[in-house]
Design goal:
Layout (H helix, E strand, L loop, with lengths): L1 E2 L3 E6 L16 E5 L2 E5 L8 E4 L14 H10 L11 E5 L4 E5 L8 E4 L3 E5 L2 H8 L5 H10 L12 E3 L4 E6 L2 E6 L14 H19 L4 E4 L3 H8 L10 E4 L24
Parallel strand pairs: 1-5, 13-14
Antiparallel strand pairs: 2-4, 2-9, 3-4, 5-6, 6-7, 7-11, 8-9, 8-10, 11-12
Protein name: Asparagine synthetase domain-containing protein
Organism: Phytohabitans suffuscus
Amino acid sequence: MEFNRNLLAVSGTPGAGPAPATPFGGAASAAHRPWGRLWLDGSLPGERGVVALALGPRDHDFRPVDAEILARWLRAGTPLTQMAAPFAAIAYDDQQLIAATDHIGLRHLYGFQGEGWAAVSTSALELARLAGAPLDPHTVGTYAVTGFHLGEATPFRGVTKLPAGSTWRLAGGELTTASYVDANEPAKVPGGDPVEAMAALLRGNVERCLDEHPDTVFELSGGFDSRLAFAALPAARRAGVRTLTLSAPAAPTRSSPASWPRTSAPTTR
């Protein structure tokens, strides 16, 4: 299945929308389709195609999902609840482009709806450039306080994130949102305890990563994410695992914490 980090798709009615652009520094390949224009940073599939925007699409049992099944699920919508996060993909033909993100919105996709035209991209910045969208002081201010862009907000006015558990349909200069998750139906978690279920999923993913990539190096930056990933590794498998730590140029280089100067501590970020 084709994998791309960068995507821009633009659809518009005749005479509407901005002039054609060359996004991503001109590195992306471009193709015309009846519904609009498509840019991808890899090779472009034919008239019909499915493109993964997150590496290695898999279901919740960590089984790979092939292109044919994924294309069918993207068009149907509801089966996408079986996809494990992070996940995003597009499917397109001569009528429309369908984009989807995972059920918890870990893989961000961005959209803009203009007068008679609309666009989808993996980059909010590329959409802002295309639309001439200014910075939004409210969302930038919120980010300064919280460290997050809340909900579907982005730094740019009019540029939004695809909501978690949703698809976008791009055709005829319109961007249409649909949810594939039933908000009224409680999540079905194996075992009944979501914390235990997610902990087991993380442990399994970390072990499978080591099984498939024995040369994996753990970055121990001192933050929550790296500690959580290493804690998910069973104690019996930790011996001999390679790790990488970060420090400031002026930090001590001795390996023993007891030998570090009392007046300073190693900087990890």
